[in-house]
């Protein structure tokens, strides 16, 4: 068993994956690790491109999926072939600037066993803080968000997600762009819920781990750039919002039940109307209206009805 399996899911982002791998190989040392690349049926010869690239690092494995099964499903496919003490889920649009893998490894090696996951304060390509962690979603958070955004209308935006420069400490959830976890705990919790195609899969996993008594931490020493949403940026805003709302609805149904889901949809409608009026973009109210008819997946029973 090796120390760490670094898992990267690719969907039509082969150049980003190439740069990500190069940054890993350049900055990672004094630790035994492998890289597992999962292609989510990109249909653009991504794996051939990467396999023919000389990374000067032999421990790279490639998995070609026959269909796009989503971010959660693709990561789980890699976990099933990994043989390591720890897993690092890394977005393809990330770049390591220091020996982050070893720093994450040392942190969990020297932490109590109830500390199961760690991430860092991400930055964008300009050095500005990126969303790295946050509070668990709840109806209270949704009410606060709507009220805050109405009061400050065009001046500010309330969010439970946090971008910080030097934060260190326990958090509710860690951004899935750089999620370093104990393999044993990841399997104990049932891995990622594959009903989440994109968005909220890491939040759901962290919430389930927390319910089992585990803790998630952010540390400041690892340095990672997150370019942010490159694999979805090629798609239209409407499609991105649809994916986000579908995952959010499933999350609320799963953890809080039908009553909370009804309130969420109502709050989403009000918030979509507000954003559309402020931005003069009708996409938001269209998505807010369509989400009223979204039905959550029934792969996993809700916590309560």
What this model shows, in words?
With 305 residues, the chain is an alpha/beta fold. It has 2 domains: 2-228, Spore Coat Polysaccharide Biosynthesis Protein SpsA, Chain A (Alpha-Beta Complex); 237-293, no CATH class. It is 41% helix and 20% strand. The chain has helices at residues 14-27, 46-51, 70-79, 100-109, 139-152, 183-188, 201-211, 230-233, 237-256, 258-279, 283-290; strands spanning 2-10, 33-39, 60-64, 84-90, 94-96, 115-120, 131-134, 161-163, 169-171, 173-174, 178-182, 215-219, 224-226. It has an 8-stranded mixed sheet with strand order 3-2-1-4-11-6-12-9, with helices on both faces. It has a 3-stranded antiparallel sheet with strand order 8-7-10. The chain has a two-stranded antiparallel ribbon with strand order 5-13. Strand 1 (2-10), helix 1 and strand 2 form a beta-alpha-beta unit. The chain is globular and about 50 Å long.
What are the main properties of this structure?
305 residues; alpha/beta; three-stranded antiparallel β-sheet; Spore Coat Polysaccharide Biosynthesis Protein SpsA, Chain A; 2 domains; eight-stranded mixed β-sheet
